[in-house]
Amino acid sequence: MIEWSEPQRMIQKMVRDFVEKEVVPNLDDIEYNGVPPYEILRKMIKTFGMDAMAKQNFEKQIARDKARAAGEEPERKEKDEDEEGGSGGEQAAMTMIPVIELSRHAQGLVTAMGVSMGLTGGAIMGKGTIEQKERWALPLLTMEKVGAWAISEPNSGSDAFGQMKAVARRDGDGYVINGSKTWITNGPYADTIVLICKLAEDGVEPADRKIVSFILDSGMEGLEQSKPFKKMGIGSSPTGELFLSDVKVGRDRLLGGSEDSYGRSGAKATFMQERAGVAAMALGMVERALELSVEYAKDRKQFGRPIGDNQLIQLKLAKMEVARMNLQNLVFRYVETMAQGKTMTMAEASAMKLYAAQTAMEVTTEAVQVFGGFGYMRESRVEQLMRDAKILQIYAGTDEMQIIAIARDLLAR
Ligand SMILES: Cc1cc2nc3c(=O)[nH]c(=O)nc-3n(C[C@H](O)[C@H](O)[C@H](O)COP(=O)(O)OP(=O)(O)OC[C@H]3O[C@@H](n4cnc5c(N)ncnc54)[C@H](O)[C@@H]3O)c2cc1C
To answer: Is 241 a catalytic residue?
Structure first.
């Protein structure tokens, strides 16, 4: 794959038009004035029939799960073509295109949507019981409800499991959960929360405790959701804290229905999914930074000629184009990988995330430089791209943690 196909380009154009019409005029509200992003996202999902597609896929998966539970081998059509929306590659392309287009203007929208539909809905669809999927997943997959996926705590970020303090204790047939979570995307507005914590058992050292996850609903007794934090960037993605004080849950809320069903590997599968999406976000931001920079380099005159006539500015633009091409190739590679029904290794996904995050930061910083003083002003929009890019180096595993993952893999060969 070296370029989007004709039908994919048509979708790209339609999404771009939607973003120009519905997102751009509301940017200040969603980025700076505290207007939650969910109505715009719901409108996009409806406009492009993503909700109907999610519903059809959901129903097919439930039917397959039920057949499997009844001991029948579910019928599968040709490889990769049993989901609505076409092959694995086609679906991956259809996911990447809106991510790229939204990230050109408001990467926070992608974060809010990705955490709700992909991480929270995806965790329930991937690890939940049939009953849990039927009870919680569909409204998340259609964005009718907002989801949050909570692992980070004040003292446990990169070392997510090692220092985790939130615990569930067995209590009769259910559990009682205590602890707090921080920097949680959609935390302030989430209707459904997948909460990852440790299981406290007598005689088991904290470091050896099992990892378990629960599905919580907003408004449960003892669960408090904070107001959104004020952040450097991605204002269109609300981020907050969760406090749990003696939250009583039944076993029906234990993800997967068993204390062994989610665990460390469940959370790791989610990390991998997150990492792959970052290349698409970076591509959108880099494309936009480059376009704006080229335009400005032609228009802005100093010393009697456009600043783009200077080789120092040309070098910046040329490096931005190299970055754009590399990111696009990574996105195409991901689509091809999915088309062939393959998965990425953790190291590959980490390498992709590391490169994408660093590149987005470098390119957007250089874009601000091309714009000079105007680049420091909000109206230039490149300053927002630069602030938005920084988060890619921090969440879904910091740059340093990606480096460790890649190096570990190399050294283990
Ligand atoms: C906007 C935003 C949204 C987020 N959304 C979510 C969410 O929805 N759900 C969720 O659970 N979490 C979320 N997070 C949390 C995010 O995943 C963590 O911030 C991230 O994992 C880093 O953890 P930390 O902030 O505790 O940094 P720390 O782990 O304290 O790291 C601080 C610094 O030390 C470095 N470091 C740490 N350990 C090592 C090491 N062994 N070797 C070298 N360097 C190291 C780090 O790379 C970093 O540079 C979000 C964060 C932000 C800012």
So the answer is: no
The CATH code belonging to domain 6-145 is: 1.10.540.10
Distance in angstroms (rounded) separating the CA atoms of residues 365 and 357: 12
Q: Which CATH number fits domain 149-263: 3.40.630.30, 3.40.50.1950, 2.40.110.10, 2.40.50.1070?
A: 2.40.110.10
Summarize pLDDT for 51-65 with one digit per residue, the tens: 999 999 999 999 999
Atom of ligand 1 nearest to the CA of 401: 47
Catalytic residue among 101, 153, 241, 274: 274
Q: Taking CB atoms and a 6 Å cutoff, what residues make up the pocket around ligand 1?
A: 115, 149-152, 157-158, 183-185, 231, 239, 391, 394-395, 398, 400-401
CA of 239 to the centre of ligand 1 (A): 14
CA distance 198 to 326: 40
Classify 310 in phi/psi space as left (phi over 0), alpha (psi -120 to 50) or beta. beta
CB 242 within 8 Å of CB 226: yes
Task: Report pLDDT digits (tens) over 249-286.
Answer: 999 999 999 988 766 666 665 666 677 789 999 999 99
Q: Supply the pTM of this predicted model.
A: 0.95
* Distance (Å) from CA 396 to ligand 1 centroid: 8
